[in-house]
């Protein structure tokens, strides 16, 4: 029982990180049909920026803010340079373009930060133990901040005019233009959101899961699987998908084999794509974001 | 003139569809543009609202040269386009669809927005009890009403509508067109593109008949409706064909299914017709 609780807790905090990465995929995909393969790199880059900023003497919080802001900026620049100029964007074209950006970012990170994996200083070091379940403070931070960020993103799409205008672009781009919403601005905002949530995921995860130039690959793929579980068009689905994936992974690692941990995500992806391509929490295909 | 189009040429890439369209509509005038499928009616509206680039000619809106304006800027200047197939935002509530209709006026006075909304509600009281409902759950007729109401929320000087009668039962067509007549009486300028010539003739002040990218006839609806060229040639079967269309049960079941076709994700979801 204690084992199960321990695994569940670890799975949820891991899943919360996936959920944030997944939100980034959803934010971009709904607006422009772009699947952003550089989403994981946003997280890795944020982790590395924060680590090196702390290393050069910046206080932890300042380093985290610097990392999130600079990665959000990278995402916005990426949109203007790579996505915006393409006249007729299709999902396939977007895969190739964003794979290029992902590769470029990885090379850049390797060049600047070197090949070693490091962990960011935790927001609160140490941990405690309840009923035999050991909990690190950083894991609580992950759950808390990921929860707040997810709710904020959800609120943005459901309650604000800007959020609703992004949903309008996702659902009926022509009608959105006719009521005066700029699709190019919407795409830019979607990248800003994706960069920000991806960066937050990166700095939250780094103290526990460590960050290297290539950690974006796995994180990005897991985030993509989580988003797909939710149908790729729903923030709620992405969050649930992330948590589910995290829990299933740690349960597999704990009860079956650590080696199978990463296989879970892809097994799940195949099952969902074959059996329920609209996602397992799918409301209807109509309801986007 | 609220809307003045001179020598308008437009098309899709190398395919020229419009060959010098002249069209004008004064304040408080309802102009119907009719023509068979493929005459270029939808292309004309797409060019007017900036969805398609104008390759030659000019468009003036209330005296301002708006040729070459994009759709966002045109919406702000005072042209609202109610697109073909309604294109409401399906997962958003009716109220949110209306709010987004007023997107270009979001920094304007709240009283003007409230007034636009009250007028739209008075015009289509059916929408009032459905404000919190997702727009995709409305029937085809209600979606058309919502699409028009959304256009009105932009507080336009000129409202252009693309086939508002498509797929609707005759009773609803009548309801929609009498609402358009009421808007005209309130002083709005309307350009309505229609295949349903009978419905359009009933309310129009003037009619332009399009054929293969040109305006071939223009005039008073009473005179044109008896013109053999209209009933025979340019409508591809004309009034007789419309009678058949009216007889067919349209996608307007009670509590019915939405008739807006949904296509997959991806960048191009526009319904492109000529």
From TrEMBL, chain A:
GO BP annotations listed: amino acid transport
UniProt keyword terms in alphabetical order: Amino-acid transport, Cell membrane, Membrane, Transmembrane, Transmembrane helix, Transport
Top-level division of the source organism's lineage: Bacteria
Mode of membrane association: Multi-pass membrane protein
Listed Pfam families: BPD_transp_2
Listed transmembrane segments: 16-38, 44-77, 89-113, 140-157, 186-209, 229-251, 263-282
Any one of the GO CC terms: plasma membrane
Cell membrane found in the keyword field: yes
Compartments (UniProt record): Cell membrane
GO MF annotations in UniProt: transmembrane transporter activity
Keyword Transmembrane helix: yes
InterPro entries: ABC_transp_permease, BCAA_transport_permease
PANTHER family documented for this protein: ABC TRANSPORTER PERMEASE PROTEIN, BRANCHED-CHAIN AMINO ACID TRANSPORT SYSTEM PERMEASE PROTEIN LIVH
Similarity comment: family membership: Belongs to the binding-protein-dependent transport system permease family. LivHM subfamily.
Protein name (Swiss-Prot/TrEMBL): ABC transporter permease
Lineage start: Bacteria, Bacillati, Actinomycetota, Actinomycetes, Geodermatophilales
